[in-house]
Amino acid sequence: MKLTLGFSPCPNDTFIFDALVNHKIDAEGLEFEVMLEDVQTLNEWALNGKLDITKLSYGVLPLVMERYVVLNSGGALGKGVGPLLITAREMNNDKLRMKNEKVGVPGRNTTAHLLFSMAYPEATNKEFMVFSAIEEAVLSGRVDYGVIIHENRFTYQDKGLHKVIDLGDYWEKETGLPIPLGGIVMKRTFENNLSKKVDRLIRKSIEYAFQHYPLITDYVKQHSQEMSEAVMRQHIDLYVNDYSIELGPKGKEAVHKLLEVYRSTNPETKLINPVFI
Asked: How does residue 127 score in pLDDT terms, banded at 50, 70 and 90?
C-alpha cells in the first residue's frame, strides 16, 4: 500500500523520517511517496486534504480536525524551542509599539502566529511570508519586526539582528506547558489500525535515528542547503525529543491549550475536538 507523506526539508524532519522512507527499518508492507515542502505549503495542502499523512503547524490544526487525526509520534514540542521576535535595532520589549508597526510572520495558520498573537494581541499590521524570507525582510526595512523559526533562531545574530522576546519562553511562563510547534496528522478516512501502524513506524524511525546519533546522514545533509553540521545538530537537539517519540499527556494538554488560544483569537470559528491516535 502506498501513502503520500509530506514533511519539511529541515533537519529535524529529515532526521525523524530518514529510516522510514529510506528503508532502514521494515515498513511492514507500506510504501511512502514523499513530498518535501516548507511548513506554509504543507499547511495549505493540509487545508485542502492533499496528503494522506503530513507534518503541519499545530496552528493550522483547528482548521483540519474534521479531516485528520493526530499521531502520537513525529511532532515537535518542547521547552526553549519557540519562535523569536526580532528587529534590526537593539531595543527593549515594548508591547505598545507593536500596535502600529509591521511584523513579518511565517504564515497565517502557524503556531508561530498564534504564539505571537497571544503575546501581542493588539498587533494587527502583519505580513505573512515564507519563514526563510523574514530575516531579509527585517534587514531591508520591509517589515519592522519578524517572527523567526527553525534554523534562523541560530543565525539571526550573525546578520546583526536583535531579539526582542522569545515567544516560546512567554508561552511556557504563561502556561507551564511545552510549546506545540508541529505535529503529524493522518486522514480520518483510513482505518484506525492503519493509523496506529503508521504511528508505530514513525516511532521506530525516530528510535533508529537516535541509536545512530550524533551521525548526520547524507539524507539530512542533502536537504539542509548551506547549513553546517553543528547547526543541523542544534536543530535536531532542540526539536526532536521525547515528545517526538510520543506526545504523552503533557503534549496533548499543550495542544489543547493552543486550541484555546485559537478560540480566543477566532471566537467566530466553531471547533471540534482533536482525535489522537
From this structure: very high
For residues 271 and 62, the answer to whether their CB atoms sit within 8 Å is: yes
Q: Which residues are catalytic?
A: 150
- CATH topology for the 2-78+178-265 domain: D-Maltodextrin-Binding Protein; domain 2 (3.40.190)
| pTM score | 0.85
For 131, the grid coordinates are 519563514
The closest alpha carbon to 235, from 117, 152, 144, belongs to 152
Superfamily classification of domain 84-175: Periplasmic binding protein-like II (3.40.190.10)
pLDDT confidence of residue 94: 61
Residue 116 CB contacts under 8 Å (≥ 6 apart), including other chains: 83, 85, 103, 105, 123, 147, 167
User: What does the buried/exposed string (b/e) look like for 21-34 if buried means 16 or more CB atoms within 10 Å of the residue's CB?
Assistant: beebeebeeeebee
Q: In this predicted structure, what is the pLDDT of residue 155?
A: 83
Flag whether pLDDT at 97 surpasses 80: no
Site of grid cell 553543528: 230
Phi, psi of 34 (to 5 degrees): -90, 135
Calculate what percentage of the chain has a pLDDT beyond 90.
Answer: 74
CA 56: distance to chain centroid?
6
Query: How many CA within 13 A on the CB side of residue 193?
Result: 1
